[in-house]
Amino acid sequence: MTELRVLLVDDEPLARRGLKQALARHPDATVCGECRDGREAVTAIREQRPHLVLLDVQMPELDGFGVLREVGAEQMPAVIFITAFDAFAVRAFDVHAVDYLVKPFDDGRFDEALSRARQRLRAGEAAELGRRLADLLSDAPPKPAGPQATAPSPSAFKDRLLVSVGTRAVLVPVADIEWIEADDYCVTLHVDGKAHVLRETLAALEARLDPECFVRIHRSAIVNVACIREVHRPSPTEQVVVLGSGQRLRVSRSRREHLERRLGRAR
Questions:
Q1: What is the rounded CA–CA span in Å between residue 42 and residue 65?
Q2: Contacts with 171 (C-beta within 8 Å, 6 or more apart), sequence order
Q3: Could you report the per-residue pLDDT of 11-40, keeping only the tens digit for each?
Q4: Can you list the pairs that 34-37 forms with residues at least 24 positions away whose Cβ atoms lie under 8 Å?
Q5: Given its phi and psi angles, is residue 262 left (phi above 0), alpha (psi -120 to 50 degrees) or beta?
Q6: How far apart (Å, rounded) are the C-alpha atoms in residues 134 and 95?
C-alpha cells in the first residue's frame, strides 16, 4: 500500500485538527475526509472508501458503536477508536484486540496504533478485522435514548490526570488544579504555581471533570469552584473571578448566569 487514506471522525474541530497534525508526520497518510458526527461518518465511509477510520466513540446522536451498526462490521474499513472516558469501550477493545487511543494520547502512542493498522492492511486482514468488529459490536450495549444518552456516570469523572514533566510522567490530583486554559489542541493545567500541558481539547477534558467541582467561565477557561475567592464587576459589562492565587480571569457574558448559579449552590 503506497497511500493510506484516512477518514477523521470527531465532533470537536480542535480534536480533528490535532489528528491531522499527528498524521502530517506520516508521508504515506492522506486525510480523505473529516466528519463532525456519526451520520456524516456513515455517508463518508460508504462514499470515500477510506483504508482507515479514526473514530471518536463519544458523539451525540450516533456514536462510534452506532456508526459500526449502520455501516456493518463486515463493510467497515480498519478502525482506530478514540475515547476519552468510556470504561466499557477500553475493556471491550482490549478483549477484542481492536486498536484504540485514550485521550489525551502522545505521538508515540498514535504512531504505534497507526503502525499496527498499516501492518494489518498490508497483510490483507480485512476478514479478520471484520470478525473482531462484529464480535465487539455484539457485546456493546446499545446507546440509551433520551437525555441520559451522553451523560457520563460519576465514576467516569477523573480524580487524577497523567502529565509529562521532562522525561517523567506525573499524576496530578484533579482537586489540586486551580484553573485550565485552552491552547489550540492542547490545554494547560495550572497547579500550585506550575503549568502542565495536556494534548487534549478543553471540551474533551471538561467532559471528564465533575461539573460540581469545575465550571467553564469562558470558551478558553475552566476554573475549580473551590479556588474562586472573589467575583468582581469592573464595569456594568464586565465580570472577573479572582482565584486564591490572585489570578484574575474574565467571565464571558454568556456564562455569567451559569457561574452565579454554580456559586450559589456551592455556598
A1: 11
A2: 160, 161, 162, 163
A3: 888 889 989 999 999 999 999 999 999 999
A4: 34/7, 34/8, 34/9, 35/7, 35/8, 35/9, 35/10, 36/10, 36/11, 37/11, 37/61, 37/62
A5: alpha
A6: 13
